[in-house]
Design brief:
Layout lengths: L1 E3 L1 E3 L2 E3 L6 E6 L4 E7 L3 H18 L4 H17 L1 H12 L3 H19 L1 H4 L3 E7 L2 E9 L2 E5 L7 H12 L3 E5 L6 H12 L7 E3 L4 H9 L3 E7 L2 H13 L3 E5 L4 E5 L5 H13 L9 E7 L3 H12 L20 H12 L7 E4 L18 E4 L6 H4 L6 E7 L2 H9 L3 E2 L1 E5 L3 H10 L4 E4 L15 E2 L2 E2 L6 H7 L1 E9 L19
Parallel strand pairs: 1-5, 8-9, 8-11, 9-10, 11-12, 13-14, 13-19, 14-17, 16-17, 19-20
Antiparallel strand pairs: 2-3, 4-5, 6-7, 7-23, 12-22, 15-16, 18-21
Helix pairs in contact: 1-8, 2-4, 2-7, 3-4, 3-7, 4-6, 8-9, 10-11
Bound molecules: nicotinamide-adenine-dinucleotide (NAD).
Amino acid sequence: MKTVHHWIGGKSVEGTSGRSGPVTDPATGAVTTRVDFASADEVDTAVAAARSAYATWGTSSLAQRTSVMFRFRALLDEHREEIAALITAEHGKVRSDALGEVARGLEIVDLACGITTQLKGELSTEVSGRVDVASIRQPLGVVAGITPFNFPAMVPMWMFPLALACGNTFVLKPSEKDPSASVRLAGLLAEAGLPDGVFNIVHGDRVAVDRLLEHPDVAAVSFVGSTPVARHIHRTATGHGKRVQALGGAKNHMLVLPDADLDAAADAAVSAAYGSAGERCMAISAVVAVGASGDALVAKIKERAARVTIGPGTDPASEMGPLITRAHRDKVASYVTGAAAQGSEVLLDGTGFTVEGHEEGHWIGLSLLDKVPTDSDAYRDEIFGPVLVVLRAETYDEGLAIINASPYGNGTAIFTRDGGAARRFQLEVEAGMVGVNVPIPVPVGYHSFGGWKDSLFGDHHVYGNDGVHFYTRGKVVTTRWPDPADAPTGVDLGFPSGH
Ligand code: NAD
């Protein structure tokens, strides 16, 4: 059986802890791979490699860093299909979705290729007699990334391209459920000419994560995952004096006003709720249908959802694949099974679904729950599966109040033809990313990604300008080069006033 090892100092390094975990093909339920789990000592080895590499990478020229990034971009482009296949084999998502994930990661590499523009700094001349002031940004040192299972290539690429281009070295702890894509990315970085030790990977569980959070040589931590773990990461790592951005879970609402194009809204709801089997932090998991058109909208959603083809991600006919693990599949199913008793109308129940010839796969069909009470588990929890809940509201204000009462605030969308209502929504909704007739408003690479409330702990979003700021720290240099003709200033105990 294949084993996935750590990546330290520019090469694959076999684990020594004696601990490992299974990696499963979600379409068959078979364990195909084992992944090493790092001990605290192995994490220390990776951090030491990153620290030692920082001595030269931190002061390397911008030209060197960007030429590595340009070569990495070309290699990534060339290996899209291979990385997508690794994602499908361990995550289960369909090939087109996996390719989309690689493309969105590549967008951040594009940004890193242009880091020269982002790091230009600012200069004010003659702020006082022959005094200039320059603001520059410098790297932090060793930074760590801890990433979730649902985007095993894209989320690491939200982090490391910018971190490296800014001059930091990196230790990644990817999800133990689908670790292979990240190791392939490490290989491509090495092929692109990245010096050994600049990018490292340790696999594993809480043991590895907690060591990274407390390690004195780790300057900053980027985390993406569920809310309880995000909270733990933020609390622990800030407690150890680190800069932290910890992106958490979500319950993304789509508000559909009565004047919306209901066919477009239903297409969008089905695509955004069930794409990647609902295992996206930007999935629409709750539709708030406003006014009398709610019944027509729900009928259109139901009709479309019933037509989605589910099957192995490797089958070109499949539009939706299996869930990540058997345990997660069973948890998702429990929300549907318990929904009627908590007051929802179950319009589609996918819990009995299976794929012939792949009965051991982690299958679940599409479920649609209507008139879902806001105090029910199916509404309150992030289900992270193909279960769409619909709530009804009489007015825009009532719908907005439902959304703003949610503890999460990642993404949200409004569907309407009314520009005034859309404008109000942009300003009034409490979420970090807003779509207007766009169901999954994931920002492009040169804008930043991040939520509000329990969807993000810390004050920097990822990538875009926020990413550059997160991975650098400011320094302001005030300079005076006296003219030989200047008279001596003499001693002056007054506070410099700039005049
Ligand atoms: P998770 O929180 O279980 O795991 C994320 C990472 O943390 C993994 O590397 C895991 O090994 C590690 N981890 C898990 N438990 C830990 C613990 N107790 N202590 C320390 N580390 C721990 O998340 P997941 O199931 O892999 O991913 C799905 C979750 O991620 C969903 O909640 C989803 O909304 C969220 N997510 C959020 C975003 C976003 O941008 N906000 C993006 C993608 C995924």
